[in-house]
Amino acid sequence: MTLQTKYEFVLPRGYVDDNGAVHRKGVMRLATARDELDPLRDPTITGPDDPRLTILVLARVVESLGTLGMVTPHEIEGLFAADLAFLQDFYGVINFGSQEEYHALLAAQQSSSPPPTPIDPEAAAPAATPVGGDSAPSASADVSVVAGEAEGGQAMAESMAGSRPRRSAIEEIPAGR
Known about the structure:
Layout: E1 6-16, E2 22-29, H1 33-37, H2 52-61, E3 62-65, H3 73-77, H4 81-96, H5 99-111, H6 121-124, H7 140-160
Antiparallel strand pairs: 1-2, 2-3
């Protein structure tokens, strides 16, 4: 039996690079002790609770993202919040979870709804209202997009229920474990 050290993932939204290309598929490797300790030595990190610590650790363990040649803290900082949260959960599951939790995370991601389709700004623009008219543009399209996001996130949270709790940040394992 061989130890799996690299895991493929698909971001819920995707990283949008400077050219507008979206990168969703990537590979994360298992973290080493050095991956968690070296960022603590960074002079910009104020301690183990510094939110930037998560960025530095993820930049070390995400080996590839789409067609990007290298994943740096700059790319991790540019992720949408849903993608950063997904990578934090993914990191926790592959490094500290069981194979069942890994499969549950993948199943939860596949069962969640796809990202909402972007709205064409010109098509979404309200029709011209006659002077003195009191009609307001409908917000139903926006509400359905938000509802779809909430349902997708809720589906993932519900399917992860009973497994390990979500981590708010990449944390150092306390001594004595």
